[in-house]
């Protein structure tokens, strides 16, 4: 496990203990292709090393398959495909971010394949700007806002929208193309 | 503080649960009594149910429940003593009372308004039965002349003087921890009479610093003027009997009884003596005499022996007490056989055990690589133990379907009365097991089917007679296991489905073209369509046409199917076929590319090699029959390593056969089905997944859906090829 992954993991694990600092929130920043994205850390359950998911037949390409997370079967989503780009390749720092999202009133656990996690960062609510109407490579609906951190733009994702089960299910591909 | 409130809430929850069970038992007994199949002990059991509800309701201060249950109890008491006879009206009244108690408890649980008016209405009917005249009933009157035939009062010749009961209570040290307040019991005694004197024994209370506030150090000596029977007074202490020392000395007892009481507390005999004097139960003189006698006696003679020996208590009382004790024992042992566990804990356990199995298999694999027979042997033992544990754990979630069936006798009774039909319900296979979560979900669909059978299926008695059938209709509920699924049938011996009428109605509604040719099955299935009803008139039960499609969709949501069989003039059978979800299925483990798939074993007929000359045809010849097959590798777009000689798994579903071409066969395995969750709800070919020995996830194939899918896509496929 890379050191940054370890540090980020610890941060996730210890998040409950940390004091609530004003109106800043903690975000987990990760890389995907050339961009840096961030997810509200309260959505994140853990970060695990990449393991090859088991494919589920006849699912959209954005659903890479399922993994066995200590006995629970957790679907793994390829965010890049979800954003309409080519599938994420597997590198040394590829890992799976386990997040929780709500579906029909119940919490549902999903994994996201990312190219690597950067850090846990504090972002003040005031410094988050709305997403530009166009120009980002991600569908504007998926973006909760953008923030400038260390001289770089970070895209804060609206996880509920990105991982909307209803929407992901509805793009099931035509059933048979043999 | 918070904890205490929580404990109370928890105890109240337990009370609710227990009350519901008792009410269910009452209902079962009443229904049995109605159809004449009552058992010997039923009347006593019925009384005990009401009594326990009243008693524990009193502990929680649920006054309305106590007020109501008290009168019900009186009626039941008379029934049990043969002073009243069961008739159909009384049973109906008692069933209504049982419902009302359930409503009262539900109202308390949901914090809604308690339906007091209904209580009064039922109470006045009960009073009429009791013959004490109508009018509002006050809370259990203290001096009400209780039926005391079981007691030792008038029946035994001893005049009821001004003497009183003496009760010596030494609650067990744990009572407070058990959530019981001894004071509540003593207060409750005043329901049976007047508390003349209560003396508290504080001798056992230690130094303040050393005292544990959760331990009850106190003892009580109570003088009670009451005409209640000994059994009734004993009954008050049912809940704290365990671990407590309770001695009840009836009025007019000989001095020896008090002596026995003193003797039973021999460590502080003098103290008790003083207490008895303080309570006015014995005089100082008598005490002195008694203590003198005691000195001459065997120091450790048993109290019961002394009592009987001295004729202090009439034999029937001893018998009754022994009987009561035995019953309490039986009840306790019954409780000990069932442990209630929240289902999320069970699920967590099952998950962990699944992990344990996987870890066990992994370890076993590692160990088999090293050449150490001794370690290998112990790993073998460990693994087989782990697998045993898994099997047992999975069985924990299985419950008998009888739990669902048990509510139907009442439904059938009520509905058939309402419709003026005479219907018998038969239940078979109530012991068949299925997953608890299924049990919770099939209740409503089944209810609907049963009501339908009664309303639409069974003909009125005159019609039945005319058709040469017994006037009494029969509805049967039957459950049985069949190849990895459970079948539940609701059948009736009624008129059967009217094919012509259904078809006519369907054509009228535009659901079917007038010139369509439909098989019987297809016609019957029309009744499952939304909005379909052939009922000539809408009753309160059915006829609105919203029922069967809901039933169907509920069952389909459980991945089950609903079949209809009907013979005109002879009856209809609705058959639900449901998977046993989460139950272990016997699976057949195959590999395609690098993926693992599980095929339910009961669908597998045989395995053959794929003939090399099959080319790109979609069928092969098997024993002179054409067998259509599907290549899973292509269908699922699997990459992974290809096998030079693929295998065909021949599967059967219903009457059809098909082949599935796979790369590898791993063999039979026990499979724990894990649901795939909402994301995969629409996935056609996969019904669930499982974690296989090496920790990877395997998909469980839904063979039926898979073949249907291929059959539907067959034309397009060929066109493309």
Keywords:
heterodimer; A: 178 residues; mainly beta; OB fold (Dihydrolipoamide Acetyltransferase, E2P); five-stranded mixed beta sheet; 4 helices; B: alpha+beta; Four Helix Bundle (Hemerythrin (Met), subunit A); Alpha-Beta Plaits; 5 domains; 23 helices; disordered C terminus
Structure characterization notes:
The complex is a heterodimer of chains A (178) and B (721). With 178 residues, chain A is mainly beta. Chain A contains 4 helices and 11 strands; from the N terminus they run αβββββαββββββαα. Chain A has a single domain (3-15, 24-170), classed as Beta Barrel (OB fold (Dihydrolipoamide Acetyltransferase, E2P)), CATH 2.40.50.180. In chain A, the strands form 2 sheets. Chain A has a 6-stranded mixed β-sheet. In chain A, a hairpin with a 2-residue loop joins β6 and β7. In chain B, β12 and β13 (595-600) form a beta hairpin. Chain B is flat. Mean pLDDT of chain B is 75; it is low at 133-162, 540-545 and 714-721. The A-B interface holds A 54-59, 63, 65-68, 70-73, 75, 103-104, 108, 110, 165, 168-169, 172, 175-176, 178 and B 351-352, 354-355, 358, 595-596, 634-638, 674, 676-686, 689, 691, 695-699, 709-710, 713, 716-717, 720. Chain A: Residues 24-168 form the CheW-like domain. Chain A: This is Chemotaxis protein CheW.
Give the topology.
The complex is a heterodimer of chains A (178) and B (721).
Chain A: H1 3-13, E1 24-32, E2 35-40, E3 44-49, E4 63-69, E5 72-78, H2 79-82, E6 95-103, E7 106-114, E8 116-124, E9 128-129, E10 143-149, E11 152-157, H3 159-162, H4 165-170
Chain B: H1 2-34, H2 42-59, H3 63-80, H4 88-109, H5 116-130, E1 165-170, H6 182-189, E2 193-201, E3 219-226, H7 230-236, E4 245-249, H8 255-264, H9 269-279, H10 284-296, H11 303-309, H12 315-337, H13 343-369, H14 373-396, E5 398-400, H15 402-405, H16 408-419, E6 423-428, E7 433-435, H17 436-457, H18 461-466, E8 473-482, E9 485-492, H19 499-508, H20 520-525, H21 547-557, E10 561-567, E11 571-579, E12 584-592, E13 595-600, E14 604-609, E15 619-622, E16 625-631, H22 632-635, E17 647-653, E18 656-662, E19 664-672, E20 686-691, E21 697-701, H23 703-720
Parallel strand pairs in B: 6-8, 13-21, 16-18
Antiparallel strand pairs in B: 1-3, 1-4, 2-3, 5-7, 8-9, 9-11, 10-11, 12-13, 12-19, 14-17, 15-16, 17-18, 20-21
Helix pairs in contact in B: 1-2, 1-4, 2-3, 3-4, 3-5, 4-5, 8-9, 8-10, 13-14, 16-17, 17-21
